[in-house]
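Provenance

Sequences were taken from public entries as deposited. Structures were produced by running a predictor on each sequence independently, with no templates supplied. The record for Lycopene cyclase domain-containing protein from Mycobacterium spongiae is shown for reference.
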Amino acid sequence: MSDRWQYLLVLAACLAITAPLELFGSGVYRHPRRLARAVLPVAVVFLIWDMVAVAGKVWTFDASYISGLRIPFGVPIEEVVFFLVIPVCGLLTYNAVSTILDWRNHR
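Predicted structure for Lycopene cyclase domain-containing protein:
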């Protein structure tokens, strides 16, 4: 397999590993509006930051590890997905840990 899919594969693994955490508490995916309000504003800010940095050649991405698909200003699609996937994984983890701690404290 080509290395160019590694970034996307790592992101897919993050989602797969944290997906079962949806079963704890009120869930994250079960509240899409709340999820969007939590993730999208921050994702947009960091995406703009990346666009400026890549366009200004402040940083680049190793072409060996990305698919080659890019959005305007040269930002790889994997970076866009990163700004969505990692916060969702964080919210899933936070929700699960909070729920487990609540269960423990109410015993």
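Residues 11 and 85 are 7 Å apart (CA to CA).
Helices lie at 6-18, 32-55, 77-105.
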